[in-house]
Design goal:
By secondary structure, the protein is mainly α. Helix content is 90%, strand content 0%. The chain has one domain. It is rod-shaped, with a radius of gyration of 32 Å.
Length: 105
């Protein structure tokens, strides 16, 4: 099978090398395909990098919020006033009350 593929490629090459215009068209088509594949690969890599950066940023924000909520829960368990917790954590009073309800269950 490998020999047949090589023979076919050689026949194709012979066909294109005999006609300057056909050879020129073939080479330019191949160049365009290589450029297209290269551009697509670069775009995929750029998209992945952007996605990773966005994911990291979202993860950091979620982590910060979870940390603030954990602190608010500790403050609630220690009997600190809801208004003071809201001032210290920048959570809304409703969010703190929600945490207090979770703590009861």
């Amino acid at each position: 099978m490998e020999e047949k593929s090589i023979r076919d490629a050689m026949e194709t090459e012979k066909f294109f090398t005999q006609d300057d215009i056909k050879r020129w068209e073939y080479e330019h088509r191949e160049d365009a395909l290589r450029d297209y594949r290269s551009d697509m690969r670069a775009c995929r890599e750029e998209g992945r990098a952007e996605g990773k950066a966005e994911g990291r940023a979202e993860g950091k924000e979620e982590g910060k919020l979870e940390g603030v909520k954990a602190t608010a829960l500790k403050m609630l368990k220690n009997g600190i006033d809801v208004d003071l917790i809201a001032k210290c954590t920048n959570l809304s009073i409703d969010e703190i009350r929600g945490l207090a309800e979770q703590m009861k269950t």
